[in-house]
Automatic annotation (TrEMBL), chains A, B:
Keywords assigned by UniProt, alphabetized: Annexin, Calcium, Calcium/phospholipid-binding, Metal-binding, Repeat
InterPro entries: Annexin, Annexin_repeat, Annexin_repeat_CS, Annexin_sf, AnnexinD_plant
Family the entry assigns: Belongs to the annexin family.
Name this protein carries in UniProt: Annexin
Keyword Plastid: no
Source species: Lupinus luteus
Positions bound to Ca(2+): 30, 32, 34, 74, 260, 262, 264, 302, 304
Domain of life from the UniProt record: Eukaryota
GO terms (BP aspect): response to cold; response to heat; response to salt stress; response to water deprivation
Pfam families reported for this sequence: Annexin
C-alpha cells in the first residue's frame, strides 16, 4: 500500500488498476445472482477521491449507467449508505449531507454545524458550489429557512463566512474579545450578537488565542462555562461549534463514542464520520479515541456493527480486506 | 474604438499598444517637471481589466516600481483617487472599498451593502479572496466587528451568502414569503429575522418573484411600504438593499443624482460608481439617468466637476480624449 495523507486512514494499493479495469470489476460485482459486496469494498474503499471520480466517469462512459444508481440498486441499508456517501466527492457528499440535514424528517443542526466548522474555507466554498449545482438553491437560504431562532442565528453566519485561515493573531483583540465572551457568558447571554459574531467570523487561529486568554484570565475553559444547561439544544450546539473550530479531533472522538455506545448504535453518525474523515484526519481521530476510551477505534467499531457494513468501515479505517 | 461589454462605457482603441509601450509611456508621463495627466488618462482610461493588469506587471518588471505607488506619488486629490481605483482589478478595488468602509473615519454601510448586493456571487467571492490576501482578515469579521445592531444583522448575511444565480422560481414560496414580508412590514418589524433572511439569502430571481407577488397581492410596491421613516438609517439601508438586488441601475442612478446635486458634489460616490461600473453596466445606468433627469449623465458630470478629474470620468464614460 502506498501514498496517503499524513492523517488519512485510507489505504491505496501500490499498483492501482486502471479506471477501466475497476469499472469492469464493479460491473461484474453487480451481475449474476448475488451482489459481490467484497469486491465492491476491495475496489471503492481503496481508491482516493480523484480515482473514484475517474471510475465514475469511466463507468458511465463504458456502461452508459451512473455508478451511484447501480450501487443504489444493488446495495441496501447501512452498507449502501456508507458506499454511496464514500463514493461521492467530498464536496458533493457534504452538500448532500447538509441538504438532508435541512429536511424536516432528517433535520440535524449538528451536521450543518459540523460541516461548516470543520472544513477548510475553500472546501466549504466548494460545498456551496456543489450544493447549488445539485439543488438549484443556495446552502445559505436552505439553512436559514429550515433552522429556527437562536440556532439560525448561529448557523447562518457559520455557513456564510469565508473564514480567514492565516495564522496571524491580534493579541489585543484576543484579550478584549475574551473579556467580552466572559461577560456575556456570565450574564447567560449565550445568544448575544457579539458572542455569535466572534465564534462565527474570527479565524481559527484568532479564536484559539481568544479562548486561551479566556482560560488564562478567567480561570475556566469556555466549554466548562458553557456546560451550565445541557438540555438547551442551542447551548449544546454552541459548545460543539467551539470544539469543532478549535479541536475537531476531540469533537469527532466524542461523536463516535456516543454513536458506538448508544443502545443500537447511531449508524448515521458513524458512517458520516468515517466516510467524511477517512481521507482527511481519521488517523488523528482514532488516536484521540484510543487515548480516551482505551480501546482502538477499529476494534470498538468491529464490536458494534457487522456484515458488509463492518467490512466497509474497517476498510476505510485502513484494514486490508 | 473596438470591442466592449454590451453595457460597459469603457472604450478601447482598435489597436492597443503593447504593455511594454504603455509602461514606457506611463513612465514618461511621470518624468520631467510636471506630470502629463492627459497621457495617463489616454492610456489607463482606455484599457480593460486584463490589459491594466498586464501593464502593472510589465511596469513592475521593467521599472522595478509599483505603478500604483508611482501614480500615488504623482497625482493628487479626486483625480488620484479615480485613477488609483480604476487601475486596480475589480476584486482588489471592491476589497479596498469595503475595507475603507469598515474603518471608523471612512465608515460607510452603504458601500458594503452596495458591493455585497450588486456583484455576481463569484465576483463577491473573488472580493473575499482579494480582501484576505490584502488585509489578512476576512471581510465577514471586519463587517461584523465594525457595524452595529440591526445594520450588522442585515450586512453580515448579505456579505456572507453565496447567492444562487439560477432563474428557477418557486411560486408557492414566493407567495408565502410575500405574505410574510407584508405581515412583518405591517407590524413595523423591519428587522425581523425572516424579513432579513428572505432579503439576504434568496436568489435575485426568487426575490423578484416574491416582490412581484407583494406588489400584486397587497397593492403597494415594497419600497413604498418601507418609506415610512426616512430618518431611520437601518430602514434606508434595507430599502436600498432591495433596490440593489432587484434594480441596480435605478439604485446607481439615484446615487449619482444625489452625488451630483449635492452642494459641493459627493466625489467619493461619483468616483466609486464610475470606476466600478464603467466595465459593467454604466451604459444602462446612464440611460436610466437620462430618463429620470432629462440630461445626459456625461453632461451632468461635466457641469459639476473640472480639470483632470473631469477628463478621467468622461473618458471612462466613453468620451474620446
Amino acid at each position: 500500500m502506498a501514498t496517503k495523507k499524513v492523517s488519512a486512514t485510507l489505504k491505496i494499493p501500490a499498483n492501482v488498476p486502471s479506471p477501466e479495469e475497476d469499472s469492469e470489476q464493479l460491473r461484474k460485482a453487480f451481475q449474476g445472482w448475488g451482489t459481490n459486496e467484497g469486491l465492491i469494498i476491495s475496489i471503492l474503499a481503496h481508491r482516493n477521491e480523484e480515482q473514484r471520480k475517474l471510475i465514475r466517469a469511466t463507468y458511465a462512459a463504458i456502461h452508459g449507467e451512473d455508478l451511484l444508481k447501480d450501487l443504489d440498486k444493488e446495495l441496501s441499508s447501512d452498507f449502501e449508505r456508507a458506499v454511496l456517501l464514500w463514493t461521492l466527492d467530498s464536496a458533493e457528499r457534504d452538500a448532500f449531507l447538509v441538504n438532508e440535514a435541512t429536511k424536516r424528517l432528517s433535520s440535524n443542526n449538528w451536521v450543518i454545524m459540523e460541516i461548516a466548522s470543520t472544513r477548510s474555507s475553500i472546501d466549504l466554498f466548494n460545498v456551496k458550489q456543489a450544493y447549488q449545482a445539485r439543488f438549484k438553491r443556495s446552502i445559505e437560504e436552505d439553512v436559514a429557512y429550515h433552522t429556527p431562532g437562536d440556532i439560525r442565528k448561529l448557523l447562518v453566519p457559520l455557513v456564510g463566512t469565508f473564514r480567514y485561515e492565516g495564522d496571524e493573531v491580534n493579541t489585543t483583540l484576543a484579550k478584549s474579545e475574551a473579556k467580552l465572551l466572559h461577560e456575556k457568558i456570565a450574564e447567560k447571554a449565550y445568544n448575544h450578537d457579539d458572542l455569535i459574531r466572534i465564534v462565527t467570523t474570527r479565524s481559527k487561529a484568532q479564536l484559539n488565542a481568544t479562548l486561551n486568554h479566556y482560560n488564562n484570565d478567567f480561570g475556566n475553559a469556555i466549554d466548562k462555562d458553557l456546560e451550565t444547561n445541557l438540555d438547551d439544544e442551542y447551548l449544546k450546539l454552541l459548545k460543539a461549534t467551539i470544539q469543532c473550530l478549535t479541536y475537531p479531533e476531540k469533537y469527532f472522538e466524542e461523536l463516535l463514542r456516543m454513536a458506538i455506545n448508544k443502545t443500537g448504535t447511531d449508524e448515521w453518525a458513524l458512517t458520516r464520520v468515517v466516510t467524511t474523515r477517512a481521507e482527511v484526519d481519521l488517523q488523528r481521530i482514532a488516536e484521540e479515541y484510543q487515548r480516551r476510551n482505551s480501546i482502538p477505534l477499529d476494534r470498538a467499531i468491529a464490536n458494534d456493527v457487522s456484515g458488509d457494513y463492518k467490512s466497509m468501515l474497517l476498510a476505510l479505517l485502513g484494514h486490508d480486506d
